[in-house]
């Protein structure tokens, strides 16, 4: 069979040139923008495959198409492109929602178009919102993301309260069970007694402590600590001579007085009496608290006493005890070549230690009855602290000597003019005369070496220290009867006392 040649195939006649009418909406959507002539932008070319076919864009995801596509029933609605800012042009009516940002290349079949907010400034929502504002979210909307019924919120609150109550009950039960296992104790707290009756140790200490000072003496690397008692508003204080002895031998020594409130001030030595271990210092203070001076002669063994001072440097220390004995002669070797110390002491069992020296011994009324001076220690054990035997200079003797030191700067004691030693025999007990000073009071009265003095005035003499204190209790120039034993025979002579 012969195939027809190409020249034999029928040819299609040219189609007539017909241009159907263009839909104005299509022209507005796809026509050239106003003011644009010629071809479209040649820089844009759709993607093509190797065989020259245009690659179409894949369909939009179903979720996006559902979110941004036309709602059901609006498939025939065409979003129009505005011709300019004044309207859609071509005589078309202005859309209800108009995009002020024109896009001449927008696809009218696109699901959505960018535009201004649905509510413009000045359009309220009718719920009392100001123009240009929008209703604020409620608490349920913020917390739960949607509205919640008030009844549901109330039920939720009740459930929370119930859970909290149950948790509290469980915690209480666990705590109560733990207490049952470890045991419970009801501790009764009693209010501390604040009433301090007059005459109590606390009341006396409160009144006396401001008048008792701590005395510190420092000279280079050397120093000492003792106590003192303020006895005069002018700033005079009584203390022991051995407390401030360093200041009398070394001029560069510094004396500091420390009061119970911590005030520190300088002090100067006014005068000393090494024979009775007393001294007076002047403290640089205005209107100090001074102690009330009592009568040591009214004391009886067993009376309550209180010692106040700075034992071992511990300021404002208070100890209590009783009067153990009266008229207990005490003698000690003098320091730095000074004469022996002898005084008629009050013995007490109130604890006294080093540093109490010069402090106050007061009675149950808080009155000064003695100046603490020394203690008896146990030499066998080497114990250097209090063993319940302390000695104080009677306040009567101390104040008498202090007045003389303040007025004269020195003290003269009555003297009998002999050296004596203690003796104790079957026939006599007293102070035996070792030697008699030529021309002295004893020599003029006819007292001889070997005589044993047993009494001076009305004071019994049982040893040499007691003879000294009996004589010093008198004044120079006094005529005093002296009872003695000479060769076994008692004898009484009158002696006119002299001065040392």
Automatic annotation (TrEMBL):
Pfam families: PDZ_2, Trypsin_2
Name listed for the protein in its UniProt record: Trypsin-like peptidase domain-containing protein
Highest taxon above the source species: Bacteria
Keyword Nucleotide-binding: no
Species of the source: Amycolatopsis pigmentata
Disordered: annotated segments: 1-34, 51-105
Biased composition annotated in UniProt, kind: Basic and acidic residues: 8-21
Boundaries of every PDZ domain copy: 405-488
PROSITE patterns linked: PDZ
Record-stated family: Belongs to the peptidase S1C family.
Keyword Zinc included in the entry's annotation: no
Keywords: Hydrolase, Membrane, Protease, Transmembrane, Transmembrane helix
Residue ranges crossing the lipid bilayer per the database entry: 153-175
Matches recorded under Gene3D superfamilies: 2.30.42.10, Trypsin-like serine proteases
């Amino acid at each position: 069979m012969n195939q027809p040649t190409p020249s034999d195939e029928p040819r299609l006649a040219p189609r007539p040139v017909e241009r159907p009418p263009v839909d104005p909406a299509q022209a507005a959507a796809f026509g050239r923008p106003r003011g644009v002539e010629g071809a479209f932008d040649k820089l844009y070319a759709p993607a093509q495959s190797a065989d020259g076919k245009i690659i179409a864009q894949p369909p939009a995801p179903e979720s996006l198409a559902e979110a941004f596509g036309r709602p059901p029933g609006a498939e025939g609605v065409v979003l129009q492109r505005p011709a300019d800012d004044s309207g859609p042009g071509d005589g078309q009516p202005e859309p209800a929602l108009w995009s002020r940002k024109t896009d001449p290349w927008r696809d009218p079949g696109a699901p959505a178009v960018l535009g201004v907010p649905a509510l413009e400034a000045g359009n309220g929502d009718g719920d009392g919102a100001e123009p240009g504002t929008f209703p604020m979210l409620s608490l349920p909307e913020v917390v739960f993301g949607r509205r919640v019924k008030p009844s549901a919120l109330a039920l939720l609150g009740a459930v929370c309260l119930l859970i909290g109550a149950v948790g509290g009950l469980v915690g209480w039960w666990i705590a109560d069970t733990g207490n049952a296992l470890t045991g419970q104790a009801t501790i009764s707290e009693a209010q501390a007694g604040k009433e301090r009756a007059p005459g109590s140790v606390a009341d006396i200490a409160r009144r006396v402590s401001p008048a008792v000072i701590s005395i510190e003496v420092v000279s280079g690397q050397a120093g000492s600590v003792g106590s003192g008692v303020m006895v005069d508003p002018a700033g005079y204080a009584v203390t022991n001579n051995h407390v401030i002895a360093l200041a009398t031998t070394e001029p560069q020594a510094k004396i500091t007085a420390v009061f119970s409130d911590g005030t520190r001030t300088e002090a100067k030595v006014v005068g000393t009496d090494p024979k009775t271990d007393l001294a007076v210092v002047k403290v640089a203070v205005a209107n100090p608290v001074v102690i009330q001076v009592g009568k040591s002669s009214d004391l009886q063994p067993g009376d309550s006493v209180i010692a106040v001072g700075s034992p071992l440097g511990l300021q404002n220390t208070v100890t209590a005890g009783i009067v153990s004995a009266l008229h207990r002669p005490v003698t000690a070797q003098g320091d730095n070549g000074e004469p022996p110390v002898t005084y008629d002491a009050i013995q007490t069992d109130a604890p006294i230690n080093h540093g109490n020296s010069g402090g106050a011994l007061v009675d149950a009324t808080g009155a000064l009855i003695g100046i603490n001076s020394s203690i008896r220690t146990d030499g066998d054990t080497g114990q250097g602290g209090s063993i319940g035997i302390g000695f104080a200079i009677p306040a009567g003797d101390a104040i008498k000597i202090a007045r003389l030191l303040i007025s004269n700067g020195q003290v003269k004691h009555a003297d009998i003019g002999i050296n004596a030693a203690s003796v104790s025999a079957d026939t006599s007990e007293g102070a035996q005369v070792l030697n008699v000073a030529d021309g002295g009071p004893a020599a003029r009265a006819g007292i001889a070496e070997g005589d044993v003095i047993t009494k001076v005035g009305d004071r019994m003499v049982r040893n040499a220290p007691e003879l000294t204190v009996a004589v010093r209790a008198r004044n120079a120039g006094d005529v005093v009867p002296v009872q003695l034993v000479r060769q076994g025979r008692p004898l009484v002579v009158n002696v006119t006392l002299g001065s040392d």
